[in-house]
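>> Question from a student workshop board

For tomorrow's exercise we were told to take the sequence and the ligand below, predict the bound structure, and bring the output to class. My setup keeps failing. Could a helper post the expected result so I can at least see what it should look like? The ligand is adenosine-5'-triphosphate.
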Amino acid sequence: MTQEQWGQVKQQLLKTVGSNNYKTWIEPLELQEVADGVATLAAPTSFLGNYVSQNFGDLILYQMGNINGDVRRINFSVAANSAARPTAPKADSTATSTSEDTASPAPGAKVAAASESLFPTAPLDDRFTFDSFIVGKPNELAHAAAKRVAEGGPVTFNPLFLYGGVGLGKTHLMHAIAWELQAQRPDLSVIYLSAEQFMYRFVQALRDRKTMDFKEMFRSVDVLMVDDVQFIAGKESTQEEFFHTFNALIDQKKQIIISADRAPGEIANLEERIQSRLQCGLVVDLHPTDYELRLGILQSKTEQYSAQYPGLKLADGVLEFLAHRISTNVRVLEGALTRLFAFASLVGHEITLELTQDCLADVLRASERKVSVEEIQRQVSDHYNIRLSDMIGPKRLRSFARPRQVAMYLCKQLTSRSLPEIGRRFGGRDHTTVMHGVKRIDELKQQDAQIAEDLEILRRTLEG
Ligand SMILES: Nc1ncnc2c1ncn2[C@@H]1O[C@H](COP(=O)(O)OP(=O)(O)OP(=O)(O)O)[C@@H](O)[C@H]1O
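>> Workshop helper replied:
Here is what the output should look like for this input. Compare the format with yours to find the bug.
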């Protein structure tokens, strides 16, 4: 691989990983040498080298392979000792870490016999255990199913299919299963990897003419876990391979655990036979968190932080406030708490409600349910059974004018748009017209029970 080709690889990586990731992680890398199919990349720090190796190693190798088929492995010229996960054993103890050896097995778990270049298990996050997973109504079934599978007993439901929205704990549960299996059943060979990694491995095997090794390896494991399976949608040959691997393991009564961001039947461009195969075991949904679960997660995180930041006090009501206000995903919730503790420890203050509102203003704003003017117009015209064009149009008929005023009122109440802006969205009306409409509905809702009820229903629908 020449420096020029390395430049092309970097250009491709820029497109794939985005400019922020690119600047931080890829740009600092230098191509040092290529010998015997092994490309050595020099990273300025061992941390960076390890991080890139873990997170982008496969991708870099994949792109390099596309541009120059001679490259089969990558080395990072950094010390292997500085790996991010101290508990994970090193796959080898040489002074370099490779994209393969960072994909190390769960400690203690036996890794399926495989050629080194296809070494498949992705690293596990040691924070993601059953102990640190808070159980509530929305995730109790998923948790119970994961626990059962983690016992490593006779296979009762196969596959276990976990699905749910972003940041609701799918990966956490899968890692927890892997850790538990490794502790309870170190005799089992367990492979955990993302569907994306499955694809890269497969492509690599195709390129290296090692598909038999690939097949053999995946078909000889006891437990196969594939995260984010929606990734293989639309990728035909990967799907094909996945399907055969899947069938072979099911036939041998080996446990398969799959996660996705939606139910099997809802993954577009996933072959029907795969969709139906995925549904033949237990399909469990991780529901969006509720208030109690969020509070539980915050309390548990706070205990950890209190140990980390001794002496830092948390005022009553702060966690409740956060659990109430941040209702998106757990990742955002955790991030908010991390920021709060870090900030409070810097300024040396007790974490009060004011400090929380101050420090997390952007997160709180972003979590507010955003209702758009268009959504309001649509809902209101549906409610009053008029056409959207009549609501926005010039007609002054009472049957259009009243719903229009209701919609203007709701826009003022539920969005942060100014009166002139609302006017513009209502067919270019003047801000005084909007002001008048808002005032009129304000008065009417005191006198007219029907209007008050309409407003209540609409507000509830719009705020979800
Ligand atoms: N019930 C829970 N208890 C404790 N932590 C949780 C819980 N649910 C999620 N988390 C935490 O939230 C973060 C996001 O979870 P995770 O990565 O498992 O989400 P995911 O469902 O795999 O999301 P994505 O679709 O983005 O991959 C992690 O730090 C995880 O530890």
